[in-house]
Amino acid sequence: MVFSVNTDKTSAFLLLLTLSFTEATRAEEPVTVSSKTLTSRVANTIAVAAVQACDKRGFKVAAAVVGREGNLLAFLRNPLAGPHTILVSQRKAYTAASLQTSTSQMAARADLSFAPGILLIVGGVPISVGGEFYGGVAVAGADPEVDEVCAQAGVDAVAESLEFAQ
Q1: Which of the residue ranges 13-22, 51-60, 156-165 has the most confident prediction, judged by mean pLDDT?
Q2: Which of 31, 52, 54, 149 lies deepest, with the highest CB count within 10 Å?
Q3: Which residues is 85 bridged to in the sheet?
Q4: pLDDT digits (tens, 9 = 90+) for 75-124
Q5: Across 42-63, average pLDDT
């Protein structure tokens, strides 16, 4: 007795078997990614706290808060802060969010200076609390080290609220 195998049917069966196995494997993996986003109230609280921290030190600054994707969520500028502080604070905040680290940690990374929107000047910090990453905040208008301290004051102002929200 001779058995003949139809290779078209066999190939189709193997393909179907492979696809169903792949789909079953995929079903076990999540198909979406979840992230937490700051509310406008929290983003504004960060900006206000950052500007106030610098006001107390005698500096007129601007503060920008961006979400994890780098889009502006909140902005506050002392009316006496220089006009350059608007764009500089936004770009430093974008940099801190994009790189998920403080700009002081990346200031020496000249290789990143050509990346669009990246500004490697001290004064931007990531908003990361309780293992969750939310975005970045930056201050411009004071000495760069003071900018960073004020930006961190903004994060510190909401850290407890963000931790309890989890």
Answers
A1: 51-60
A2: 54
A3: none
A4: 999 999 999 999 999 999 999 999 999 999 998 898 998 899 999 999 99
A5: 98
CA angle 81, 84, 89 (to 5 degrees): 85
Q: Is the domain covering 40-165 a CATH 3.30.450.150 domain?
A: yes
Q: Which amino acid is at 148?
A: E
Is residue 137 within 8 A of residue 96, CB to CB? The reply is yes
3-state secondary structure of 152: helix
Q: Per-domain residue ranges for the chain?
A: 40-165
Q: Is the pLDDT of residue 4 over 90?
A: no
Terminal alpha carbon distance of the chain:
70
- CB-CB contact of 112 with 120 (8 Å): yes
Alpha helices in the chain (DSSP H): 7-28, 40-56, 84-99, 103-106, 144-165
